[in-house]
Amino acid sequence: MAVQIAIPSTSLVVGSDPVPFITPTLPNGVQRYRLSVTPSVWPLNGSVLQLTVEESQDNGANFVFSAGVTFAAVNGGLGLDKSGLPITTALWTFTPVFVGTTVKLRLSLHIIQSCTVSASVETV
Questions:
Q1: Sequence-ordered list of residues with C-beta below 8 angstroms from that of 110, at least 6 positions apart, any chain
Q2: Are 119 and 35 contacting, i.e. CB atoms less than 8 angstroms apart?
Q3: How many CB atoms lie within 10 A of CB 93?
Q4: What is the mean pLDDT of each run of 10 residues along the chain (124 residues)?
Q5: Domain range spanning residue 89?
Q6: End-to-end Cα separation, the chain, in angstroms
Q7: Phi and psi dihedrals of 85, rounded to 5?
Q8: Which of 22, 61, 93, 110 could tie 50 with a disulfide, CB 3.0–4.6 Å?
Q9: For the chain, give me the number of helices (H) and strands (E)?
Q10: Coil, strand or helix: which one is 124?
Q11: How many domains are there within the chain?
Q12: What is the dihedral of CA 38, 42, 46, 52, to 10 degrees?
């Protein structure tokens, strides 16, 4: 696995949606990507962050919707695993629509509740 994007711990405030992030050209032949989100400050309940992934097969000239996910808070965290322990990192895997030497991703984040998180996107 190779990390493509790494975002250090960052405070996110409602109404301050960051400018969409466009990756450099991605490695050819990648079958899946995994997004890891690790909160350090997280609300008690409800939807917190909404991520939209778009893909380009022409070096970023045009983008099409690929996938989306909403991260939610459950009792002040990401929830509990099967054994009842708190989940500390949310993992989300998605399969790219395009494969090739001119593929880029555009990641757009909508902040629903203020929080502080770190994140990374890596090839799987």
A1: 17, 49, 50, 51, 52
A2: yes
A3: 10
A4: 83 88 86 90 92 94 95 85 87 90 92 92 84
A5: 3-123
A6: 5
A7: -85, 150
A8: 110
A9: 0, 8
A10: coil
A11: 1
A12: -40
CA angle 49, 50, 51 (to 5 degrees): 120
CATH of the domain at 52: 2.60.120.680
**Sign, CA torsion 66/72/77/79:** negative
pLDDT at 1: 66
Q: Tokens representing 56?
A: 């380009």
Euclidean distance between CA atoms 85 and 29, whole angstroms: 36
| Amino acid letter, residue 116 | T
Q: How far is CA 106 from CA 21, 56, 84, in A?
A: 6, 8, 35
